[in-house]
Amino acid sequence: MTPKTCILIGAPVDSGKMRDGCLMGPDSYRTAGLAQSLGELGHTVIDDGNLAARKVDAVATSAKVHNLAETIGWTESIADAAENAMDRGFPIFLGGDHSLSAGSVLGVNRYANTQNRPQFVLWLDAHSDYHTPQTTDTGNLHGTPVAYFTGRDGFDGFPALDNPVPQGNVCIIGLRSVDLAERTALQASAIHSHDMREIDEGGIAKPLAAFLKKVAAVNGMLHVSLDVDFLDPSFAPAVGTTVPGGATVREAHLVMEMLHDSNLMTSLDLVELNPFLDERGRTAKMMVDLAASSLGRRIFDRPTRSY
């Protein structure tokens, strides 16, 4: 394993939904030992501290959209930090609700464009987050980042996308809560989407392996966005959008171990942790363990044999 310079970027975003608490996420990951776990694996860890949202004037929009200007401000500040961090190492964005990924993906995609490499995104989530500010019923912008960075219309006031991430470069695994409007739009797109029934029937390794093969074939850069609600709430309860039937502990670790083995991941989000809803830090510790698996922690090495 080649050691990385892991750059921790706190993004205490709490504007993308109505329920407060995700602003405490970054420090919970720190308390749960993220830096220590990565250091024990031989990585250099640099903690850049917590970002703040850029000041943005009020933006005219539908009254149903919550905290639009603040979320735009977060998108701008996170995107700039992401692009800068990519030039220094391997950024890990500590969230914060999932609207932060509008900024993290925007920033890493900008960097990928300067390297003439295609950007890919693996979205591990119960939800597709493919609404726009015009289609959302809840007004919660944490349900819109995939629509934003793939270039759907309706994001007035957000930073302009010179080169949206192509739909075919996005893979969503873990779906089990998608409303009709979102499902219709998703099915009309080129996004690779895999729900939990597909995982139940065929396993989680097959769709992931196919996507990683596609990334490798074109020397792509891979951003991974891990939402707490990808996991089953029976062992990861600290999220405001719990949906039963999520990935098991072993399925989640398998995904992370495969990502490490592929050596393709170039940036990572850890999002939607709401410590106010946790039980003695168990969800934060689980997310730290998964991050460690994605960066080389394993029980046994798997030597290559000639037979």
Keywords:
307 residues, 16% strand, globular
Spatial strand arrangement across the major sheet: 2-1-3-8-7-4-5-6
- Number of structural units classed as domains: 1
State the order of secondary-structure elements, H for helix, E for strand.
EHHEHEHEHEHEHHEHEH
Task: Please report which band the strand proportion falls in: under 5%, 5-15%, 15-25%, 25-35%, 35-45% or over 45%.
Answer: 15-25%
Task: Give the CATH level 1 class.
Answer: Alpha Beta
Distance between the termini: 23 Å
Largest sheet, in brief, is: 8 strands, parallel
What does this structure look like?
This protein has 307 residues and is α/β, with parallel strands linked by helices. The chain has a single domain, classed as Ureohydrolase domain (Arginase, Chain A, 3-Layer(aba) Sandwich), CATH 3.40.800.10. The chain has helices at 25-31, 34-40, 68-86, 100-114, 145-149, 180-187, 196-202, 205-217, 249-262, 282-294, and strands at residues 5-11, 44-50, 90-95, 119-124, 170-175, 192-195, 221-227, 265-271. Strands 2-1-3-8-7-4-5-6 form an 8-stranded parallel beta sheet, sandwiched between helices. Helix 9 (249-262) links the parallel strand 7 (221-227) and strand 8 (265-271). The longest helix is centred in the first third of the chain and has 19 residues, at 68-86. 51% of the residues are buried.
